[in-house]
Amino acid sequence: MKAHAAEAALDYAESGMILGLGSGSTAEIFIDRLGKALKAGLLSDIRGVPTSSMTERAAQAAGVPLIPADQASRIDLTVDGADEVDGRFRLIKGGGGCLLREKIIAHASDRMIVVIDETKLVETLGAFPLPVEVDPFAFTITAKKVFDALRASGAPRADVALRRRGDGPAPFVTDGGHFILDCECGELPNPEDTARRLAAIPGVMEHGLFIGLARTVIVGEEDGAEVLEI
Ligand SMILES: O=C[C@H](O)[C@H](O)[C@H](O)COP(=O)(O)O
Questions:
Q1: HAMAP family given for it (predicted)?
Q2: pLDDT per position as a tens digit, 136-175
Q3: Which of 7, 56, 102, 206 is catalytic?
């Protein structure tokens, strides 16, 4: 299903484009197919801006030329995955811990296409634990503020847990040197309000609610892909 979505997204890539390359397994399938299209001569003069070190490695392996993010003056199109998508194309992202860089690139792009399998479509966001990227400095204070913000925005619960690296005790550290708080919230009654409250906390580098960024969602199904637009 993920491959069907990723392959359908290739139709939106055009020669000469600067592409934001999202992170995660679905985005990596897109990168693989993009590399194949470049090798086959179906596309040319594409340059990718990776949103994580994992994506950078995937793009190098696929033969997709890259430019460092700080040298990209514009981004035509970003293709990225998501952990949850609701009917208004509000997203939860960050399951892989790449949300800050993903949001910087999505926000800078003329267009964002989200590629998901059909299990990611939800009526209400919140079953997937909301990732919040925080500065390690005084992160327990930030975690308490995150708890308060989630409860104040009406989340039925707020179990805030520091993400660990694998099964060990060491914290997971993002490419930017930050920690991730995974927040089990239950269904979020007002994601915009949640996003505003989280963004107002000084130690929060970014949160995994992506609102107003995606205009196209490609949903991979068993036998193809459906393109949804708003
Ligand atoms: O931090 C990770 C990203 O937001 C991913 O795009 C998201 O977790 C979806 O990943 P996948 O395509 O592997 O389900």
A1: Rib_5P_isom_A
A2: 999 999 999 999 999 999 999 999 999 999 999 999 999 9
A3: 102
192 is catalytic: no
Q: Which ligand 1 atom sits closest to the C-alpha of 208? A: 4
Distance between Cα 18 and ligand 1 center (Å): 21
Q: 3-class SS at 142?
A: helix
Residue given tokens 């919040």 in the structure block: 132
Ligand 1 pocket, CB under 6 A? 22-27, 80-83, 93-99, 102
The DSSP element (H or E) to which 5 belongs, if any, is: helix 2-9
pTM above 0.90, yes or no: yes
The helix (H) or strand (E) run that includes residue 210 is strand 209-210
Ligand 1 centroid–CA 95 distance in Å is 5
Separation CA 193–CA 187 (nearest Å): 13
- ipTM rounded to 2 decimals: 0.98
